[in-house]
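## retry 2 of 3
previous attempt timed out at serialization; input unchanged, resubmitting
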Amino acid sequence: MLEVDENLVISISQGDLLDITFNVNGIELDAGGEVFLTVKENWKDETPCLVKQCSRIDADANKVRVIIPSAEMKKLKVGKYFYDLVYTVGGNKRTLNYPARFIVREVVNDA
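## retry succeeded, writing output
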């Protein structure tokens, strides 16, 4: 199960596929750029728990899609994390959101 609230807090069941599309506001994306989602236990931590390059940049619609397979999502333990998105193009970077919560919730199944 996946939920995203109005504050961009992501809640996902442990081990579930993450397939999410973000609308980007304030800048125009270039299809030649790269977007990365970074997840950390604490936003101040130096070492991330997970870094994933976005699977698709739709420059026309100004959207980015992130897909993280179940096998990778199983590595995140149940708990509260922080995430953000960073866009890089032409040697420059732009952070697309302030750190927001990324919550991995427990499940009963063991699939």
